[in-house]
Amino acid sequence: MECRKELLPADSCKPKPTDESKLGFGQIFCDHMFLMDYEKGKDWHDPRIVPYGPLALSPAALVLHYGQEVFEGLKAYRGVDGGIYMFRPQANLERMNRSNKRLCIPELPVQETLEHLFELVKTEHEWVPTLEGTSLYIRPTVIATEACLGVKVSSKYLYFVIMGPVGAYYPEGFNPVRIYVEENYVRASVGGVGEAKTMGNYAASLLAAEEAHAKGFTQVLWLDACDRKSIEEVGTMNMFFVIDGEVITSPLHGSILPGITRDSVLTMCRHWDLNVSERKLTIDEVLEAQAAGKLEEAFGTGTAAVISPVGSIHYRGTDYTVADGQTGPLSHKLYDELTGIQLGKRPDPFGWVVKVK
Ligand SMILES: *Cc1c(COP(=O)(O)O)cnc(C)c1O
């Protein structure tokens, strides 16, 4: 399907940020966005690149009342050769379709949607920043647009993609964060929508995050909804622990988000012949290992922060230090390898990188 383009004249485009060391996260948007509609009987249609701006939406649009929405997050990078690269973009669209299924949203045609994504990035190529650690963040989203106050599956949707240059996700950068183990609130339960990237999961997490921030913690570590014992994940990251040489992450049992960074880290660790387990891990086991001096390191994984080392874990009023509050060796190695592959500095043995321009 041809993508229609309605582009701004060059003199109406915004100036690019001059200081790439101060980009922050998710506050600056490119000049253009991508839109595509769905209507029952008409399938996905009218793909178009248009100037970035407000969406016209009925106040009765189903998404505003019942949260029928899914989103994705991925990045385009300025490679060392000046080219523009993306990391496993097809995996994001495939995950989006799994989220779509869970939310009763019609699936997107992966190949075409991928082509449109590349087209948008190429159109905005000047917005891909160059400074190390920066990238162009891409946010594909689907919302239910039918105007109706009855709870039902929408017959109309809008798929849109907005983008903007970003720096480090956390103000700490690649420095260890302090995490707060949450026992009162839960993020998601098995059978719910925790494994879909859908808005309700994040709305549900805000109060716990606010309370943790007020106490001086960067992130909330979620425990399972049943026993409040097993480690689930952190905010917008999957969690890894290294205990006595074993690299452990929670299995994809239905309430955690199947991260693409998580999958990439598992693949790399197995490739390096490390002892890797996707298994249930309780907070008690983590703290026992810490007490015995066997908790070597802990880190979160996600597109926004890549690898985020954990310096301390706060549980029931006590702070437990991890890796002396420093960035552990595996966190370092994974960060260097992953960003090296993404920027074309290192070989890409798994075929993860796609050259866009
Ligand atoms: C997006 C997200 C992740 C990380 O997924 P990536 O594909 O690695 O970016 C982890 N947990 C949650 C809750 C998320 O929303």
List the helices and strands and how they pair.
Layout: E1 4-5, E2 32-39, E3 43-51, H1 62-66, E4 69-71, E5 74-78, E6 84-87, H2 89-102, H3 110-123, E7 135-144, E8 156-166, E9 177-182, H4 199-203, H5 206-214, E10 219-223, E11 231-234, E12 237-243, E13 246-249, H6 260-271, E14 275-278, H7 283-291, E15 295-302, E16 306-315, E17 318-321, H8 329-342, E18 353-355
Parallel strand pairs: 1-3, 9-10, 9-16, 13-14
Antiparallel strand pairs: 2-3, 2-8, 4-7, 5-6, 5-7, 6-18, 7-8, 10-11, 11-12, 12-13, 12-15, 15-16, 16-17
Helix pairs in contact: 2-3
Pyridoxal-5'-phosphate (PLP) is lined by residues 73, 197, 233, 236-238, 257, 259-262, 301-303.
